[in-house]
Amino acid sequence: MGKPKVVLGVSGGIAAYKACELLRRFTESGHDVRVVPTASALHFVGAATWSALSGNPVSTEVWDHVEEVPHVRIGQHADLVVVAPATADMLAKAAHGLADDLLTNTLLTARCPVVFAPAMHTEMWEHPATQENVATLRRRGAVVIDPAVGRLTGVDTGKGRLPDPAEIFEACRRVLARGVREPDLTGRHVVVSAGGTREPLDPVRFLGNRSSGKQGYALARTAAARGARVTLVAANTTGLPDPAGVDVVPVGTAVQLREAVLKAAADADAVVMAAAVADFRPAVYAAGKIKKKDGQDPEPIVLVRNPDILAEISADRARSGQVIVGFAAETDDVLANGRTKLARKGCDLLVVNEVGERKTFGSEENEAVVLGADGSETPVPHGPKEALADTVWDLVAARLG
């Protein structure tokens, strides 16, 4: 089997230079990449750069090498087309089927998955015309990654920044792995919680857990690659980069996580509670550091229960047909305890895995069984956390119809 064939379209925005990093990630991971820049893009990065980095010829016009019929062949032979950055002009042309250069012709002839990574000023992104063009492309099966919030051209800051190339690559990798042209979560809003809550004891200490947030982030990345609008409620996940196209809401405690999840779930089609939420918190917060006193034992720490967020959102669903997924980390009698928890929480699916000092937490891999309220059991063998994420979304998508 040959290398996956990727077409990297580059349109004329200042973020075009970042596409060099995206190209490098594709080539170094074994993809055969053909770069198709627009004429405007060449004002930012020259053809020689694209050719040298990709190892393939670069052209912008349908009149180059006409004997090869490039305006048809490039799109026909691609396994994936990704446009990064995608300007407002490019989104408009793609949405309306215009074909005035090689890249827009390629988009019309491609029958493979197509990903757009927009980058532009906030006002341009928020303009009704752009939003309608994005909605049209999504309805037709394209994955449009929402831009990030950050520094734009000059002194401007806001939504419109090209997501980190590493995260765009991860999104494209997930799209390629599925090999499906029509994303099955397009038009859906999903909420994912990730990480581990921390309950303050005093200004320097807290009660917490070992959760890294990696499984929740894998769920968010995978959902975005499948076309969903994703809200990621992230508890203490410092060091993990924001997934491309995902709205990240940082929180610290269980109470903060509850507030953020309830707010985001109001219009969500599915909620996946992958975060490790503390069951208890200190009854009293010490305003000053608790001192060690010679010859005296410390005062006992009194704990009170935190809200049971999973049970709450399962019992009082924000909208009809909303699918709720929980996670259960168990150390013994994994399936029996999982079934008991599934019944007690009232969710539709419960992902049950065995945890321990060297299992699951912080790892890049996972192994689990997904239990359904309908009595189903779906085992997921040991493998990348993305594989478990895809299984979860498969089960969610089936229940969403």
Care to describe what's here?
- By secondary structure, this protein is α/β, with parallel strands linked by helices.
- Helices cover 33% and strands 25% of the residues.
- It is built from 13 helices and 19 strands.
- The strands form 5 sheets. Strands 12-11-8-13-16-17-18-19 form an 8-stranded mixed beta sheet, with helices on both faces. It has a 5-stranded parallel beta sheet with strand order 2-1-3-4-5, with helices on both faces. The protein has a two-stranded antiparallel ribbon with strand order 6-7.
- The radius of gyration is 24 Å and the shape is elongated.
What class do helices, strands and sheet pairing give? alpha/beta
Strand percentage lies at 25-35%
State the distance separating the first and last CA atoms.
34 Å
Number of strands: 19
Tally of alpha and pi helices: 13
Give the strand line-up of the largest sheet. 12-11-8-13-16-17-18-19
Q: Low-confidence segments, ≥5 residues, pLDDT <50?
A: none
- Average pLDDT works out at 92
Described by the principal axes of the CA atoms, the overall outline is: elongated
Largest sheet: 8 strands, mixed
Helix content class = 25-40%
